Amino acid sequence: MKLVMLGSGTSTGVPRIGNDWGECDPAEPRNRRTRVAIVVEGADGARILVDTPTDLRHQLLATEIDRIDGVVWTHDHADHTHGIDDLRPLRMGRGAPIPGYAADETVRRLRQRFGYVFAGQHGYHTICNLDNLDRVRMVAGIAISHCQMAHGPAQSTAFRFDQNGKSIGYATDFSEINDEMINLFYRVDVLVVDALRRQPHPTHAHLAMALELVDTCRAGQAVLTHLDKSMDYRTLCGETPDNVQPGYDGLEISL
Question: Would I find rRNA-binding among this entry's keywords (predicted)?
Answer without folding.
Answer: no
